[in-house]
Specification:
This protein is mainly β. Helix content is 0%, strand content 54%. Strands 2, 4, 5, 6, 9, 10 and 11 form a 7-stranded mixed β-sheet that branches. The mean pLDDT is 96.
Length: 123
């Protein structure tokens, strides 16, 4: 099993930045991908970004391209989300997720999830 714990959320003004962290522990050896999702009231869960561990390839939601960057630190078993130029619409609970080899990191298929960290952006 893999355990995930997010941190780094908080309240910022529009235009500000935050860096979210996701610490992974447990049996992480065969992780295929890790991803950040966000969930806001009235909206479906959205995949913000995903990174494929073996290749380092990343993909992002159109709404965050150019503003958010996802990265992974193998030595620390950590996933990061650098969020710049934050907008009020970015306000959401941000969740870290991971899947083992043979599985993909989508909202419906990700196997492991953290509890989430709240990001609030004021205008």
């Amino acid at each position: 099993q893999v355990q995930l714990e997010e941190s780094g959320g908080g309240s910022v003004q529009a235009g500000g930045s935050l860096r979210l962290s996701c610490a992974a522990s447990g049996d992480t050896y065969s992780t295929n991908c890790m991803a950040w999702f966000r969930q806001a009231p009235g909206k479906e869960r959205e995949r913000v970004g995903v990174i494929y561990i073996g290749s380092g390839v990343t993909r992002y939601a159109d709404s965050v391209i150019g503003r958010f960057t996802i990265s992974q630190d193998s030595a620390r078993n950590a996933l990061y989300l650098q969020m710049n130029s934050l907008k009020p619409d970015d306000t959401a609970m941000y969740l870290c997720a991971a899947s083992p080899s043979g599985a993909i990191c989508t909202a419906s298929t990700a196997k492991y999830w953290g509890q989430g960290t709240q990001v609030t952006v004021s205008s």
